[in-house]
Write a structure and sequence with these properties.
This protein is α+β, with helices and mostly antiparallel strands. The chain has 25 helices and 11 strands.
Length: about 475
């Protein structure tokens, strides 16, 4: 593995020139960290990390050489100076205590604690990083790695999500669990960045399951701990937390069934939104669980509190307003496709779904299918077949009617409509009212939010309405 990695370093279009320029300037420059890891795994690194005695001076020199600029990054153990290029980033850090070996020993994980010395054409690997690369193991570089920088706890799980066929070292996992509360002192923005990368990665579901087992997840999102042991009805085989984790794992891969639904390819950002929505889609069940006289469990109206919890948590974790609103919208509407297959809808309800969801439509259909796939309860197989057929039909209709429907503004969102109608949960009456509202938008009778809300108030005041 070392020889193959050395060859890839020496064949890289930039790395040899940068290392040789350091020699010419009389200052040793070492390639370190994730770039070596990626090259060893046959991946193309997007970040090249270099360690040197005077990182700012070297960054400034290469920024001028490549017509770029130096961007100082937030402080960790040592400052980092970044040079952004078209499709690559060059990161410069100072050698810890002026020593390459000391620098490598203070890093996060063994597979990120390897350096290459171009002059000697050899690797420095004091923590056994190459061995862990060969074994597919993510292991902390030292016993104090997480306390030195607690964001590394979350980074360990993010790396599980990102790296194919890698597993978390058991001792590293135990240490992450025992020291998880140290994350409470980490700036929220740093945690958000790790979560953003994690949820955009191929094995996010597997990583979140490990986070739940180690209880790291509940430090970040304590609202989800209430789902543990919360038993469900005959439509589910597991408690709410286990169902949530299984639903997330449905998107690991990503799966081939996305194509079977007739959906366009979803990029990493879109998959991240679906995964975040799956994380929160049933969070409101802890507030809505009831048991009727026959002993049947119900969660009437749980999409609304689930949407509110998602919005609140994502704002707290410093996700963008747009991401928080999109995830909340997906949670609020996650039962609509399943409701449609039970009602044999005509064109208007499908057109209303296309109009109301907009660009989130394929994400909602993916969410609904993953949700039902993880239920494994009564009628699952027939429901999945119906969801596939419905999804294909909706996406075909979106292709033909979408341009017309996109021109119609969304005058009232679902939560506001429920509030005006005095409804505690979505149901047939909400659908009927919004169908009628949409028809008036199509014919031009209603064109603004005030008129739309007035129409819904009139609907709510109809004689004989309970």
């Amino acid at each position: 593995m070392r020889d193959r990695t050395r060859d890839r370093i020496e064949e890289h279009p930039l790395i040899p020139a940068i290392l040789e320029a350091g020699i010419e300037r009389g200052e040793p420059v070492y390639l370190v960290g994730g770039a070596i890891r990626d090259l060893a795994l046959g991946l193309q690194p997007v970040d090249l990390d270099f360690a040197t005695l005077h990182p700012y001076d070297m960054a400034l020199f290469f920024a001028k050489r490549y017509g770029s600029r130096v961007v100082p990054l937030g402080k960790e153990a040592t400052p980092t100076y970044r040079i952004p290029l078209d499709d690559l980033r060059l990161d410069w850090v100072g050698l810890h205590e002026g020593s390459l070996e000391a620098d490598l020993n203070r890093r996060d994980f063994t597979i990120n604690s390897i350096a290459y010395d171009v002059e000697a054409r050899r690797f420095m690997d004091p923590t056994g990083g190459f061995h862990d690369l060969a074994e597919g193991r993510i292991r902390m570089a030292s016993p104090g790695a997480f306390l030195d920088d607690p964001v590394r706890i979350l980074k360990a799980f993010r790396m599980v999500a990102q790296l194919p066929a890698f597993r978390l070292d058991p001792e590293t996992e135990r240490t992450a669990s025992s020291q998880r509360d140290a994350m409470l002192g980490v700036p929220t923005e740093r945690l958000q960045l790790e979560m953003e990368h994690l949820f955009a990665s191929p094995r996010a579901g597997e990583a979140v399951r490990l986070m739940a087992a180690s209880e790291v997840l509940f430090v970040l999102v304590p609202e989800l701990e209430r789902l543990k042991g919360l038993q469900q009805n005959h439509y589910h085989h597991a408690d709410v937390l286990e169902h949530t984790l299984e639903a997330l794992e449905q998107l690991d891969g990503p799966p081939v069934w996305l194509q079977e639904l007739g959906l366009p390819p979803l990029d990493a950002g879109q998959l991240s939104l679906v995964r975040l929505a799956l994380l929160f889609h049933d969070a409101g069940k802890a507030d809505t669980r009831t048991v009727d006289a026959e002993g049947h469990v119900h969660f009437y109206g749980h999409p609304k509190p689930s949407a509110e919890i998602a919005r609140e948590v994502l704002h707290r974790l410093r996700f963008s307003n747009a991401e928080a609103e999109d995830v909340s919208d997906l949670c609020l509407n996650h039962l609509r496709p399943l409701a449609l297959i039970k009602s044999e809808p005509g064109r208007t309800p499908l057109r209303r779904l296309i109009h109301s969801m907009g660009d989130l439509l394929p994400l909602l259909l993916a969410l609904s299918y993953a949700d039902k796939s993880a239920a494994r309860g009564a009628e699952m197989e027939s429901n999945l077949a119906q969801l596939r057929e419905l999804s294909q039909k909706i996406m075909a209709m979106a292709a033909s009617d979408g341009p017309e429907l996109r021109r119609l503004p969304k005058l009232v969102d679902g939560l506001r409509a429920m509030e005006i109608l005095g409804l505690q949960r979505p149901g047939p009456e909400l659908g009927q009212a919004l169908d009628a509202l949409m028809e008036r938008q199509v014919d031009g009778t209603i064109t603004d939010a005030a008129a739309a809300e007035a129409f819904l108030r009139d609907w709510a005041a109809r004689p004989g309405r309970r």
